[in-house]
Amino acid sequence: MGRTLILESSFLIDLEREHRRGTPTGAVEFLERHADARLYLPAIVAGELAAGLTLANRARWEAFLAPFFLLPVTPDVAWHYGRIVRHLRGVGQLIGANDVWIAATALAHGMPVVTRNAQHFRRVPHLDVETY
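and the corresponding C-alpha cells:
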C-alpha cells in the first residue's frame, strides 16, 4: 500500500465530472499517478457530495463513495477545528467552516489534503496540501 491521502470536495467534483464527460484530465490523472494510495474522505465531504444534484440519488452517491474510506469527526478532529478557527480568525483569514473541518480531519490523521484550491487550504498552519 502506498500513501494515504484525504480528498477534498473540489477533487471529487472534478473526478465525477471527468467520468461523466469521459474526459480524464487532472483528477483522473492524479489518481493514476497514485494508484497505490489509500484514499480517505472526511464525513463532511460525503455530506457535501450528497447535497449536490449530481449525486442526489442515494444509490448513486453510495456507489460513488464506495472506493473511499470515510473518516468521522472525532474529539481530536474537533480540537483541531477549534485551533484552526482561532488561528485564522486571529490573522483575519477565515475560510469556510466545511473546509476547516476537512483541514482538521487531515491534521488529526496526519494526512495531506488533495485539492484544486491550494491557496485557500494553505492558510491552515502545518497542513500538507497537494494539488492536481
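(Above: one complete record from the training split.) The beta strands are 4-7, 38-42, 69-71, 113-114, 129-130.
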